[in-house]
Structures are given as C-alpha cells and as structure tokens.
Prior knowledge:
Blueprint: E1 2-5, E2 11-14, H1 19-41, H2 44-51, H3 58-74, H4 78-91, H5 96-102, H6 105-123, E3 125-132, E4 135-143, E5 153-160, E6 164-171, E7 182-189, E8 192-199, E9 207-210, H7 213-220, E10 225-232, E11 236-243
Antiparallel strand pairs: 1-2, 3-4, 4-5, 5-6, 6-9, 7-8, 7-10, 8-9, 10-11
Amino acid sequence: MRRVFDRRGRIGEARSFPSGVRKIMRRIATLIAVAALATACSSPQDQQAAQAPAPDTRADEAAKKLEIYQQLLKLHNDGPAVQIGHEIVDKYPDTPAAAEVKKTLDAMEANYKAASEKARLSALWLYQTSPMQGGTQSTATIQSSRPTGEQTVRLILRRHTAWGQSVFLYATTGKGFVCKGDCSLKATFDGKPKTIKAFRPPTGEPALLFRNDAQFLKDLAKTKRLTIDVVTISRGETTLLFETGGFDPEKWTPLPKKK
C-alpha cells in the first residue's frame, strides 16, 4: 500500500485491486461514458419520443364500440344504440368515435323516446270481441293511471249487436259510484274543461253510463290525457286520470246491427 491524500487533505491508504477487477471497472466506466455521450448527442425530438407515454388505447376502444353502434343503427335497434352511444360520448368524449356518434345520437334518441312513449300508451288499451248475452260485443278498455291498484276504474267503449254503442266507467272494486238520477261529471280533455252527463245502470252494476257517447268519442279521438271527477261510495270524491293518447279506433271492431 501507498499513502495518498484525499479531497479534504486527509491521509489515506490506496489499495491495489486484482487485475480482473480493474478490467471490469474500466469496462463499466467506458459504458457510462458512451451512454453520456449518446444522450448529449441525441436531438430534443428523440428525447421527447423516448419520454412519451404508450399510445392511448382509449381511441381504439371507442372505435370498436362505434362499430357496434353503427351496426345497431342499421338494424334499427334504437334502445341499445342509445345506451352504447351515451357510453361512447361520456366515457370517450375527446375521441373521433365520440364526434361521429354526436352526429346522430340526439335525433335518434328523440325518435326512440317518442316511439317508446307511443308504444306505452298503445299498450294501455285492451281490445276484445266476444259473444255476450245473445249477441256479439266489441270493447276497447283502458284502466285509470290514477288511482291505481285496488281502486282502479276502467273506461270502457262498447259496441253490442243488440244494445248498440255505449261508453261507461266501471269500478273494479267497491260498490261503485254516487250518482242520483242524471249527474254531471266535471272532466278535462287535455286540460280543456267539459261536462259529462252520466247515470247509474238500473241493474245495479258498479258503473256510470255516459249519456252522449257519440260526442265523448269525438272528443276522445284527439285527447291524450283525460280526467273525470267522480264520487265513489268507498273513497268519496276522486279524480280519475286516463292516458288515452294510444287509442286506435281501427282496433275497436265495428259490429253489424242486429236485424
């Protein structure tokens, strides 16, 4: 060993290393120098490329979902198309796929909602044609949207080969309605007030028959929301709501009059 001075002027001892170790140390030093030189010589663009993150896979995911969206549009499967369209726009808002979906989503969703509401209103009506007490009866029936459950009231349009045409309310539970002789029912047809003259059937059914069924049917044909104020024996004053916008007169079968 030989004595040497360190950076602070202290005396130390320099150790000698085996030749194999010295070769490895020289090789490491050479590699470090080469790496430093390569970094110094590389361009700013190369350095930025090396530091850039991995390609964004969100655009690829959105593109795959866009293909599904477009296929659903071709099949006119609007419900699932609306769902996946919103997923693309909400989850991948800055992608080309989202921009493409926005071209059609609003209009398609509006049409879908309108079609769904039309289908819902149509499904509220039940049309039946069947034998009834020596004749044939054709009915179109809708249940009240309010009240619901056990207090539901039916609005029934009826044609009978012997009895002719009639319109009436029928209480599904309870003892029916309070009405002495002819009674006046306050009603609204899409908010427009009208009065309906009605009476209880002499046979005792829990029903109210309308006097002027022909005029009522004319008003019904252009009405989406019908309300009728009645007094029931079980609940007292009650406002009935019928969502009548889905009525299809073509499905209410006309019947020949009995000879």
